[in-house]
């Protein structure tokens, strides 16, 4: 009986340690931005305000973007993007996943940074695409991990069946054009 009780305590301890050993995304310290270009000349900066995610002990990275949190600084444009482009009634979230070497983050020294090339998968608007990303990973003295894009990730609207939505936005705004390829940059911070 004592053995079973001790075994349960050890297993519970292992489960608790592994549950808290991963990293959770800190939304307040993170950002995901994208640019849109209209009329061939006018480029504007936008962002998403609500991100969540984690990095597991096995190196599995997952980031969820709340598409209803799109922030273009113009409320009617936010509403139109939610309704016609992202169709948040059907596709409320976008998900990004990637895989790091399991020992990579644990072996990083505080204050160190590394450049990485990864293949990430973006699940957006019911479609998945593999995207090459270039990032710098930094571990600060408190153990927080930051992943920062070294170059923009180019998202093509056609790959995610978003062209009809862009066309509707263009029509509603009376614009001659909106580009179909959007550069995305990010700075994500994870706390253990």
- Supply the helix-strand structural class: alpha+beta
Distance between the termini: 35 Å
Strands of the largest sheet, in order across it? 1-4-5-7-8-9-10-12
Look up the CATH topology.
Lipocalin
Query: CATH H-level name... which superfamily?
Result: Lipid/polyisoprenoid-binding, YceI-like
Indicate the percent of residues in helices: 10-25%
Oligomer: single chain
How is this structure best described in words?
It comes from Catenovulum adriaticum. InterPro entries: Lipid/polyisoprenoid-bd_YceI (IPR007372), TTHA0802/YceI-like_sf (IPR036761), UCP029811 (IPR027016). It holds the Pfam family YceI. The chain has four helices and twelve strands, in the order αββββββαβαββββαβ. The chain has an eight-stranded antiparallel barrel with strand order 1-4-5-7-8-9-10-12. It has a single domain (22-191), classed as Beta Barrel (Lipocalin), CATH 2.40.128.110. It is 24% helix and 44% strand. β8 (113-124) and β9 (127-139) form a beta hairpin. It is α+β, with helices and mostly antiparallel strands and 192 residues long. The protein has helices spanning 2-21, 75-85, 104-107, 163-173; strands spanning 23-25, 31-38, 42-48, 51-55, 60-66, 70-71, 93-99, 113-124, 127-139, 145-149, 153-156, 181-191. It starts with a helix and ends with a strand.
């Amino acid at each position: 009986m004592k053995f079973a009780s001790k075994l349960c305590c050890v297993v519970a301890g292992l489960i608790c340690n592994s549950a808290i050993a991963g990293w959770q995304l800190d939304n307040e310290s993170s950002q995901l931005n994208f640019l849109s270009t209209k009329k061939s000349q006018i480029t504007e900066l936008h962002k998403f305000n609500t991100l969540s995610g984690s990095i597991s002990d096995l190196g599995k990275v997952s980031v969820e973007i709340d598409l209803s949190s799109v922030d273009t600084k113009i409320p009617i444009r936010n509403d139109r993007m939610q309704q016609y482009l992202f169709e948040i009634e059907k596709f409320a979230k976008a998900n990004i996943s990637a895989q790091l070497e399991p020992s990579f983050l644990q072996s990083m020294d505080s204050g160190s940074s590394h450049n990485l090339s990864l293949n990430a998968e973006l699940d957006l608007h019911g479609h998945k695409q593999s995207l090459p990303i270039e990032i710098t990973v930094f571990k600060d003295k408190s153990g927080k991990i930051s992943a920062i894009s070294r170059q923009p990730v180019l998202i093509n609207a056609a790959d995610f069946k978003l062209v009809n939505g862009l066309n509707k936005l263009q029509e509603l705004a009376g614009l001659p054009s909106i580009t179909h390829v959007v550069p995305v940059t990010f700075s994500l911070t994870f706390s253990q």
